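Hi X.,

You mentioned you wanted examples for the new student's onboarding notes, showing what a folding record looks like when two proteins sit in one file. Here is a clean example. The first protein comes first, with its sequence line followed by its structure tokens.
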Amino acid sequence: MEKQTITIYDVAREANVSMATVSRVVNGNPNVKPATRKKVLEVIDRLDYRPNAVARGLASKKTTTIGVIIPDVSNMFFSSLARGIDDVATMYKYNIILANSDGGSTKEVQVLNNLLAKQVDGIIFMGHRITDEVRAEFSRSKTPVVLAGSIDPDQQVGSVNIDYTEAAKEAVSLLAKNGNEKIAFISGALIDAINGQNRLTGYKEALKEHNLEYNEGLIFESPYEFKDGLALVDRILNSGATAAYITDDELAIGVLDGLYDHGIKVPDDFEIITSNNSLLTDVARPRLSSITQPLYDIGAVSTRLLTKLMNKEEIEQKTIVLPSNIMEKGSTK
């Protein structure tokens, strides 16, 4: 038998009060007598009444819901960001709807439109790049958008990141100082601004600073998966590289395991620095040296920025850059 939907009218009738009084109790309005509040709450509990968020959203023009678009929920980089988003959203009494986009432009647009159709109050977008199609949807919608761990080269959309250029430069400089003359740059697609502009620029600046020649044969593009790291190892070794800066931890683990399979010792024969300092860097053996990004904080700060935009509060800056560092572990000398 289908469960009957309990409405605010049912609660008001059972408690012998007005629907306005029930609404005040549900919304925590202090202007209700304690005895009346107690009676209403008892009826709510007995009837198992749950306020209809959709109906409330239609009335207030707010759904107190944030849409979060994530390329790969299984990737620890994005899941760590999502935890920071969820905690701050809860603090400000917002619910989140998490949607997986697989990092593809067509699905990103589809997922974005699905969330907008649900009347979300704001969007946090995590993606490797902002395509023209996605940007067009951002512009068409009046819904506030903030990027978390993603780059908007045009700085039209609010974003929270680290300085990826400076972080890459610092990582590659460390490898150069350790005596490596051929340092591989292993990243996702270079068409993504975060890789092809920010990180690659930092890589080139570090080489120049250490009087090392830039060689396109040391640049490798790859999906961010373990198996892809394994598959790259033959090409990396054939390039003559003795070290690598890698922009994703799972990809770095694949490279590490592939080197082990070839009898290459890390860090004695080959050094690695990765980018996200996720849990993966500590479960690997040797533990992976990494850029440290405040992943949780990026998620948390992006949510706070979004709440300000949604509530039309004054914003000092839409592009927020958080600090990063290098943590040396077992994969560098």
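Then the second protein repeats the pattern, sequence line and then tokens:
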Amino acid sequence: MELAGIVGKANVGKSTLFTALTMVEVPAANFPFTTTRPNRGITYLRVDCVCKELGVRDNPRNSICVDGRRFVPITVIDCPGIVRGAHAGRGMGLQFLDEIRQADALIVVADASGGTDDDGNPVEPGTHDPVEDVRLVERELSLWIAGLIRKDWNRLVRLVETKQSTLPEEVASRLSGLRVTAADAEAALSAAGLDGSTPSKWSEEDLVRYADAVRRLTKPMIVAANKADVPTAERGIRRLREAGYEVVPCSSEAEKLLRLAARKGIVRYMPGERTFEVLEPGKLTAQQKRALEMVAEFMERNGGTGVQQLIDKVYLEVLRYVPVFPVEDPNALTDSKGNVLPDVYLVKEGSTPRDLAFKIHTDLGRNFLYAVDARTKLRLPSDYKLRRGDVVSIVSSAR
């Protein structure tokens, strides 16, 4: 299952965002380091289902379909707050860093209102620059990766400069736990403008610049501009965008309130929607009514709470994953047990049907023969690039 890491300095609303995404209650308070160990939960990526287009009633196995929207499970992990020196073990640093090794992407939570200092202590809203929240995370991650590469550096230099190995191969070996490949390590050399044949000539600054390039390539980020409902947040959001970050303004508190209200039958709300419906207005207390009015005002200004949009944007735009629907019978659109459109898989942009076969099962990939487009009933070319919403039947010699 795909994994997204929620990271950031202390007291920016990471735990509230985690709860809003997963409805798993974790401690949250207006002081630093409420989270002392990582929390894991399941949230859902929202994609268009093909059931309405194809005129069928589906019965999903690995996801949920609600009125033509397919919700695909994603694991999210809420990590302890980062402080300067986390890469060297300060605070909960090493535990946080180790937990995000397998993350596909990082959701970096920033206090858009500018109401917390570097250590997460409350300050006057608008007095802290949220750009620094993000740069802190970037710096600590890059220094951590640099430390992993630096281990037994003399041996790496010797192997590379005597041509017994290459720098990308050695780096990929050391960073395999982060799913860094030799191709990633090679691309990072180019991005950093460094010569990988003579690492003995690198300065410490060169190594950190290289580690930073590795991080950018293998751990893409999106910024959750949290507390966007606070008046001072508008300037903070603008600053984050001016700094070049991919930003989604959000209010974790608003999303959490709506999901709790929906669970109690107070409102009708689907995550990601721009509005909600109060089911029995006459039963609301004055306090509940005012709270929902404030949420509605925020959603109208921002097109929703921004929380579901974070997951959608990370996987569909930042990572550029493509949702596809594999079936065994291209005519009935079913699996071997008769389930209609049973599964949706997320594959990387540029993936072929053979790549999809391997993702479903290793044996299916090894015995892959060809694939059929369930819409046209035609065999797909071997180099066909899967597109969003494709319905594909894999034919293998194992059948």
